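G., before I forget:
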Amino acid sequence: MRNRLIFAGQFAFTLAVAAFLIVPAILSMVAGVTANYFRGVRSGLTLQWVMQVWELYADTIARSFVVALATLGVTLLVGIPAAYALYVRGGRLSRAIEEIITLPLAIPGLAIALALLLTYGGFSNFRRSWLFIVAGHVVFTLPFMVRSVMAVFSLIDVKTLDESASSLGASPWRRFRDVIVPNARSGILAGSLMVVTLSLGEFNLTWMLHTPLTKTLPVGLADSYASMRLEVASAYTLVFFVMIIPLLVVMQLFADGEGRQVARR
Amino acid sequence: MTLKAFARLCLLPLAVVAIAFFLLPMVRLVITGASSDMGLSAYTAIVFEPRYRATLINTLLLAAATTTATLLIAFITGLFLQRHRFPGRAVLVAMLTFPLAFPGVVVGFMIILLAGRQGLIGDVTLPLFGEKLVFAYSIEGLFLGYLYFSIPRVILTIMAAVEKLDPSLEEAARALGAGPWAIHRDVILPALGPAIVASGAIAFATAMGAFGTAFTLATNIDVLPMLIYTEFTLSANIAMAAALSVGLGLVAWGILVLARSFSGSTIAAAG
């Protein structure tokens, strides 16, 4: 009896926490397709707000994808070789480098953005282009790519693979291209999902780095929260959810699959 | 080409990116912080200037409150969800971790929908008390926002740690006659210690440095990130903004390093 009471109490508490997290998200999804939120769903469902968001903010949505893909490209090119080198070299220096590139996770985005502005604010062509935002996003997302690839290296015993390829006479570059990268696929994919998700939602840096002509989706969101009616802001948030949820689901499935693979080993 | 040379080549792009877009800018930030008339004393202003000190204390208190509340909530729910199997459990876990990818701005909007002028809490309290309860645009709203942001992350860490607990320890304690309260206090809590310290540090550092939620809720909430932002944009006091953000960065980083030396794993702030 006492155990049942404790169970019921914990269950109710957990439900309340889940409600706190999920109810506002549902409210916003409903508000985005409600004709008049003040009068409630009775006022009818409509897609007019979503259409309006499309007219007003389609460019921010497109730009966010461009920025995310460019960020992904750079983190792949920089991150995979770096992860490989850091892993095979090992030692104190490698750990120090890893430590330095992980720093941007601990330092608030506001500080990094300010630092970038102070350094590159004078280069007006760079500062005005969307590439400036990519620079910020790369600094912030790179550690996720490097770590996720390094994590796979420690799982697949990359050193043995590398050595056997080497004893067969393959050059370092061929080993990297034909042995290391294909074997690190799962880590590269996990890192990529993370990088794209983070870049699509990044606000702290982007708000400082953007110009009126280089607004991204989260910047547009903040804009709409401040100046648009609640229905439009909600519809915009709904668009963001629709973009980000598939990524989250794939990431989750992927994590589960990984877990099973590791368990099988 | 030897492997050593190849490894060095592999690190080259990383070195270029890290130096150009992180290390050099950071050095520039630190130099700029000391470039005002105040010189180096700009760095101590965060402690000695009464207005800045008040903001710093406010921010620390808010972060401490967020961390305590988040840990308490996550400990109860995480332990519960990992210990019991019941229909609908997977859905509940999914609901609790769904907001993981929300940026701070979206979290701010969630709080407006809950406690804003057209919010749910206002709608419920109006018929009950004859008055709309609206607190989204204050420090209480920000607290709720940081709670919203931190709960999913901390729950995941706690659940992972509970899964790794050795059940034989609890059985031994039970066999030795310990009650459920004593088991929780003397066996489970210490075993979860590293996870609690690590996730608590992340929650704390995030609550100190997060900008998006505060920005969405109101520009006049008195916390450090908003102070830096207004110093930079409204007062154009760039040197002070730089000095304050170096201070904020050091505090956030210091807390994570401290927590890591306790828990022995790499951790990172978010948001």
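Chain B has a mean pLDDT of 86. The longest helix of chain B spans residues 50-83.

More on Monday.
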